[in-house]
Structures are given as C-alpha cells and as structure tokens.
Design goal:
The structure holds two protein chains of two kinds. Chain A is of the alpha+beta class. Chain A has eight helices and seven strands; from the N terminus they run αβαββαααβββααβα. In chain A, strands 1, 2, 3, 4, 5, 6 and 7 form a seven-stranded mixed sheet that branches. In chain A, strand 5 and strand 6 form a beta hairpin. The radius of gyration of chain B is 17 Å and the shape is globular. Chain B starts with 15 loop residues before the first helix and ends with a strand. Classes of the chains: A alpha+beta, B alpha+beta.
C-alpha cells in the first residue's frame, strides 16, 4: 500500500519540484538506504556469491539475484575482478501491477523521470524507480569488500514492464562483454549489472587505449 | 505470505525494497518538516491515493459487504478484510508489516520519528495510530469510505483498535469505546479475543 501511495506522489512531486527534483529525491533515498545497511566484508568472490545466493548481502534486498558465474570479469592480467549479476524480477513490477488493479494507470511522471535521468545522468533507466535502485547499488557496493578490495557496481542492462530495454554499451565494452549476449539475458532477467573491484584495470579498457 | 480473499484470488505482494525506500523517503521529509509537517504530508498522501481510485455505489449494505469480502471494494484493495459482524471489519495481516519487517531486518530499529509523528497524530487528529503506517492506513480508509455510497448514503469509518507486529496495541479511548463497540455490534471481551490474532479492527456504518 505504501508503494502505491508513494507512486501517486510522483506526479505531484514532479509538478512541484520538477522531474529533476524527483530524481534528486530518489537518488537521496537510494544513498540513504545503502548507508543505513552497513558494511560487509568477504574473503573472496566465492563467499560473496554464496552470501548473495543465500540472501545475506545488502544487494539481496532487491529480490532474487543470480550470480552469473560463467561471466567472470577479468583484469588485464587475467585475474577475476568481478562477475555479472542478474535480477529476476524488477522491484517495481509488483507495484505497477498493484497500481493497475487499484488506481488504474501509472502516473505519466514515471516515464518523464526516467527520460530525464536518461538524458541528464545516464541512459540506463526504464522507469522512475531505476533512479533509486541504480544509485542504491552504486552506494552499497562502496560498503562491501571482497578480499579487502572495495567494490563498485556498473549498470549494464534493464528491461521495462512494457518490454523496452536499455543496454549500457560503454560499460559492457569496458568489461569486455558482448551487448548481444546481455540482450539475450534480458529474456530471463529484468536487470543486469556488474559488481567488480574498484579501480581494477579491465581488459576492455586496455583495448580502448 | 499472500492472503487470499473469499474469491480465491491472491493479493499481489509489493517488493520490500520499494517499501523500505518509501520509509526512508518519509524519514527524509520528517527531517525537513518535523512531526507536524510529516503528519500533514502522510494524511495528504493517503487522501490523494483514495481520491485517485474510482468511486463506488451499492444498492444494499449486503452488496457492499460482499464486494468488501471479495476484495472488489476500494477498502479491501490492499488487504484482506473480513467481516465479524455486518459493521465490524477485521484484518489479519497489516499491508505495511512486510516492509517494516524488511526494514528491521536490513537496517535496524524503526526510526523513532515514525512513533513521534504518530504521537502528534494521536494528540492533534485522532487517537488511533501506533506509528506512521497507521496514519496512512487510517486516513486512507476514512477517505476511501467517503467515496462509497450504499443506497445513496456515504459510508462512515471509525477505527476501534490496532495491534502492530511487535505486539504494541492502540485501542480507542475509553470514552469512545462503548459507542464504537455498539456500532460494531461486538463486546469488549470479543474485541480482546479478536485482537489475539488480527491486526486491525474498525467499524463501517451508515448514518
């Protein structure tokens, strides 16, 4: 109920504070959520991936996240510095369905916020809620270490409720993953992202140079 | 777990991340506007939600109760409502409890501001809230009831009691309780019995 009430506010907030204001609000909520969840430390990637599978990491709040362990990200020396992760169901989908059955239509501001985010910040949002959870992942990864190395998160792809997709080709190039492969992942998952060691020298970056 | 209404359909569960994000958003508002400002905000949030939903009309009270039990009424859009008597309504599961549980599991104790704002609501609006969720819930029900007409008359709502996931109870003040129990057609003993395994008890009636 709280989620539907909140969405009914998006239109009002966007009219009063502008869609830029809504983006700032949502980004602050994502940051605040990440900060409140505290720090985590793992010995290595296997222990992080097990914790993720068992729903023990901060990332697990989003729902059913799968570590695609066949998609390891390697650095210029060939060492594994991260993996690709995929969320089964977008966190916003249940809310969209609940709005459909209670209020009727998702406010137009939902797409307006996503479009503004795509043009002013990063072209990766399929709905207004992407602002919260993409920022949440960026911030939460700063609080987690794997083998004493802090992490960073990079948004790779998302599929919206009506089937539209966003693929972050620049980010995929850096980690050396074919965009078409990630597009095929969107058949089974709604959101794909990479978690990797911050500052790692990636093979894709080397190729670009 | 999802509850089922009498028709056998299942309520769609919200994602806890969205709920926790909403709680944090409300805390952000409270930091800026204080308890009074947040209370106003919550009440307007709940009222505008109810107003965005379609109005309803029924020929008889029985038709309305049937719609309520089947999950077809605005009042039962977000939760399963059971009818103890023709005026006494009960809910077994609070729609806010899942988000609260996720918050307490992932973040820690529920921020005190949620209780401070409820204190403000209890002393300045109506004495019935345990925390901010109750303000939204009760204001929503009140605004939703105003959108329902039975035989041309507007439905009225009054809160009798609420019990939160941690066992904290809030029962209507002693001077109001006999009137509300009379309208609900239950006794005080029955009220206490209902409170054992339910979360909210309220009365819907026509004047």
């Amino acid at each position: 109920m709280l989620d539907v009430a909140l969405v009914s506010l998006i239109q009002d907030m966007s009219e009063k504070a502008g869609v830029e204001g809504t983006i700032q609000y949502w980004a602050r909520v994502g940051e605040s959520l990440a900060k409140r969840m505290g720090k985590e430390a793992y010995m290595g990637w296997p222990s992080f991936n097990v914790a993720l599978r068992e729903g023990r990491t901060a990332f697990s709040i989003e729902g059913d996240v799968t570590a695609l362990t066949d998609l390891a990200i390697t650095d210029s020396d060939g060492d594994v510095v991260g993996y690709i992760y995929a969320l089964k169901e977008c966190v916003f989908v249940p809310t969209i369905l609940r709005i459909r059955y209670s209020v009727g239509e998702v406010p137009k501001a939902d797409q307006a916020v996503a479009e503004e985010y795509n043009s002013s910040i990063r072209d990766t949002a399929v709905c207004n809620f992407c602002v919260i959870h993409q920022r949440f992942r960026e911030e939460v990864s700063k609080n987690i270490t794997v083998g004493d190395q802090p992490l960073e998160c990079s948004q790779l792809a998302a599929r919206g409720f009506t089937g539209e997709t966003k693929i972050a080709e620049d980010s995929l190039r850096k980690i050396g993953i074919n965009p078409e492969y990630v597009r095929s992942l969107l058949r089974n998952y709604t959101c794909v992202y990479a978690i990797l060691m911050r500052g790692a020298r990636l093979r894709g970056e080397e190729v670009e140079e | 777990m999802n509850e089922k209404d009498e028709r056998g359909t299942t309520l769609i569960e919200d994602n806890p991340l969205v709920d926790v994000a909403a709680y944090l958003f409300l805390e952000d508002i409270a930091d800026k506007q204080g308890a009074a400002g947040m209370n106003t905000y919550l009440m307007s949030l709940a009222s505008s939600l109810a107003k965005s939903m379609p109005e309803e009309e029924y020929s008889t009270w029985e038709d309305f109760l049937e719609a309520l039990r089947k999950g077809e009424s605005i009042i039962s859009s977000f939760e399963v409502v059971k009818t103890r008597t023709e005026n006494c309504m009960i809910t077994q599961e609070c729609p806010f409890a899942r988000g609260w549980l996720e918050y307490t599991q992932r973040i820690g104790s529920f921020s005190n501001v949620h209780y401070d704002v409820a204190d403000y609501y209890n002393s300045n609006v109506k004495p019935g809230a345990i925390n901010t969720c109750c303000i939204i819930h009760q204001t929503f029900r009140s605004a939703a009831a105003e959108r329902i007409k039975v035989a041309g008359k507007t439905v009225k709502y009054a809160q009798i009691a609420a019990i939160w996931s941690d066992g904290v109870k809030r029962i209507a003040p002693d001077e109001w309780l006999p009137i509300l129990l009379d309208k609900a057609k239950i006794t005080k003993t029955e009220l206490n019995m209902i409170l054992r395994n339910n979360t909210d008890i309220f009365v819907l009636y026509l004047e």
